[in-house]
Amino acid sequence: MLLFYEDATLLADWEGGDASWWQQNTLEQIRVTKYLHDKGFIHTGLNDPRNFAIQDNKLKMLNVTSSLHEYLQTHPNSNGETVKRDNFKSLRHLMRLRNQEKKALTGIDEAFFNLFDRDDLHYTDWVHKLITHPYGMNSRKYMLCFQRIHLADERRYLKENLATVTEGQSLTSTETGYRLFRVRMYVI
After folding, report:
1. What is the biggest distance separating any 2 CA atoms in the chain, rounded to whole angstroms?
2. How far apart are CA 74 and CA 80, in angstroms?
């Protein structure tokens, strides 16, 4: 699959975008990578800024040329799920660097980028957690997430109850908020 963009700037030559822009485009590239995987494609260079362009103030992926099937045929010792996870980890490497250039990473940012290393989760659950992580939430979605966590606690869907996870702290505390988001990893 070849994609062409007119009047685009290679990411390698671009210094723009504020922290919010990078946050949203990181999540969009995760969605794009998932879509490619769902369609049977992979990208073996997601950590290289020359494989991305900026057009109309949006980050676009370039040089998608490999099908997962072809890759597995030429790399017989590879596992399809591992190859897809490695795609995401390559993307994380580039996006983390670009995000760090724009701001100091917060606890939620670090938790998001560390989530890429969670190999103990089933692939589909893992991708879902990447896409729905608080890292990309605006304040409205952030508060909705709190409500859902409380509802899950009331219905006893959590592996540990909320009082244990938050160590009895007030929910207005930033640290408690961060712990609540860690709870999302354990919702059944």
Report:
1. 56
2. 12
Residue 24's alpha-carbon distances to 33, 46, 156, 186, in angstroms, are 14, 17, 32, 25
Task: Please give the pLDDT value at position 26.
Answer: 94
Question: What b-and-e string marks burial along 82-121, b requiring 16 or more CB atoms within 10 Å of the CB?
Answer: ebbbebbebbbebbbebbeeeeebeebbebbbebbeeeee
Per the domain annotation, does 130 fall within a domain?
Answer: no
Q: Of the candidates 40, 31, 86, 48, which has an alpha carbon nearest to the alpha carbon of residue 65?
A: 40
pLDDT of residue 88: 96
Beta strands in the chain (DSSP E): 9-10, 41-42, 52-55, 58-61, 66-67
The model carries a pTM of 0.77
Could you list the residue range(s) of the whole structural domain that residue 162 is in? Answer: 137-188
Give the count of beta carbons closer than 10 Å to the beta carbon of residue 162. 18
Same structural domain, 164 and 86: no
Clarify whether residues 35 and 66 are in a common domain: yes
φ/ψ region of 5 (left if φ > 0, alpha if ψ in -120 to 50, else beta) reads beta
